[in-house]
Amino acid sequence: MAIQDHSFEECTVTDYSRIVQSSSFQHLMREKKNFILPFTLFFLVFYFALPILTSYSNVLNSSAIGPISWAWIFAFAQFVMTWALCTLYSKRAAKFDEIVERIKQEAKEGGNM
């Protein structure tokens, strides 16, 4: 097993400020913001709707299916919503990873970023 000596000149220094200012990085940030912000707002509204509706109104107290009230259906829907959002984010994160790999490749090549 050989240990390679690298001189100071051989070490590459990553210019993060150039990467952050690149169009590819700006595209990544815009894509992430366009995905994360609306879904986060939806999640928070949906999540806090149950305690607010059950505490301050009688909307969810009526029977939906036999002895099961709308509150229980709404609570179960939150599990479904969470799994759906996790699945959507996982699929979208793969796309984000592709963009990151492209940015890393561009930075490595030192091309037009």
Highlighted features:
single chain, elongated, about 110 residues, about 70% helix, mainly alpha
Order of helices and strands: HHEEH
Number of strands: 2
Quaternary status of these chains?
Answer: single chain
Rounded to the nearest angstrom, the radius of gyration is 24 Å
Characterize the largest beta sheet: strand count, sense, and whether it forms a barrel: 2 strands, antiparallel
Instruction: Give the neighbour order of strands across the main sheet.
Output: 1-2
What is the averaged pLDDT score?
87
The shape is elongated
Question: Any overview of this molecule?
Answer:
With 113 residues, this protein is mostly helical. 71% of the residues lie in helices and 4% in strands. Strands 1-2 form a two-stranded antiparallel sheet. A hairpin with a 2-residue loop joins strand 1 (63-65) and strand 2 (68-69). Helix 2 packs antiparallel against helix 3 (70-109). The chain starts with 15 loop residues before the first helix and ends with a helix. The model has no long low-confidence stretch (mean pLDDT 87).
Topology summary:
Layout: H1 16-21, H2 23-56, E1 63-65, E2 68-69, H3 70-109
Antiparallel strand pairs: 1-2
Précis, in short:
By secondary structure, the chain is mostly helical. It is 71% helix and 4% strand.
